[in-house]
Design a protein that fits this description.
alpha/beta, Rossmann fold, 5 helices, binds guanosine-5'-diphosphate
Length: 203
């Protein structure tokens, strides 16, 4: 899919600042440094787009990007990097958890994991939260260009097992460097947005 216009709309510090135009939303979540900004930039074909989410003071906020006036991509703060073994709740506070649990416009979450790493405890916490919130999620394995083709199946299996996915083929290997996986991810996002609201009672 080609994107005509992707625009940064707001860095929200609370629900009062979330957009009110009712467009469907797809959120992006993952560990800090997993490749979230690179993926967003590649998906929309705009190099500097997600740089906004990295500017000081915005890294803990919920950043909304309007895509072709039709949907919002919502960049959630990265969690659990390196020596900071904090729970999701400690990293995020109530803002992000509340967003995931209660936002009526939210149709699904793109959940990013580094293809080379086993899911961390924080990733598993994230998965638990998505399930609890009743949100469909799309597991995307980033930095796929960093591993050889022959190594891949083993790594994908390991992650699928860690996340208790019924089928490893549910994951989408992705590379911001080569563009691999872009088409598949766009298709999965489009399907999520077209599908009936998974949590109709909340909207
Ligand atoms: P974020 O903190 O999750 O937003 O991660 P970034 O997008 O800033 O990426 C973190 C680091 O990983 C940067 O040095 C990127 O250049 C690198 N990176 C991200 N995606 C890829 C990828 O698909 N392939 C390779 N080789 N490097 C990547």
């Amino acid at each position: 899919m080609r994107v005509g216009r992707a625009e940064f709309v707001v860095s929200a510090a609370g629900a009062a600042q979330f957009p009110r135009d009712g467009l469907p939303e797809v959120a992006f979540a993952g560990r800090s440094n997993v490749g979230k900004s690179s993926l967003l930039n590649r998906l929309v074909g705009q190099k500097g787009l997600a740089i906004t989410s990295k500017t000081p003071g915005r890294t803990r906020l919920v950043n909304f990007f309007r895509i072709d006036g039709r949907i919002y991509f919502v960049d959630l703060p990265g969690y659990g990097y390196a020596a900071a073994p904090k729970s999701l709740r400690e990293t995020w506070g109530e803002l992000v958890e509340g967003y995931l649990r209660a936002r009526g416009e939210l149709r699904g979450v793109v959940f990013l994991l580094d293809i080379r790493r086993e899911p961390t405890d924080r990733d598993l916490e994230m998965r638990g939260l998505l399930e609890e919130a009743g949100l469909p999620w799309i597991p995307v394995l980033t930095k796929a260009d960093k591993v050889g083709r022959s190594e891949r199946p083993k790594l994908i299996h390991r992650i699928a097992k860690g996340l208790a996915l019924p089928d490893p083929r549910q994951t989408i290997p992705f590379s911001a460097t080569t563009g691999e996986g872009s088409r598949e991810l766009w298709a999965a996002i489009a399907e999520r947005v077209r599908a009936p609201d998974p949590r109709p009672a909340r909207s």
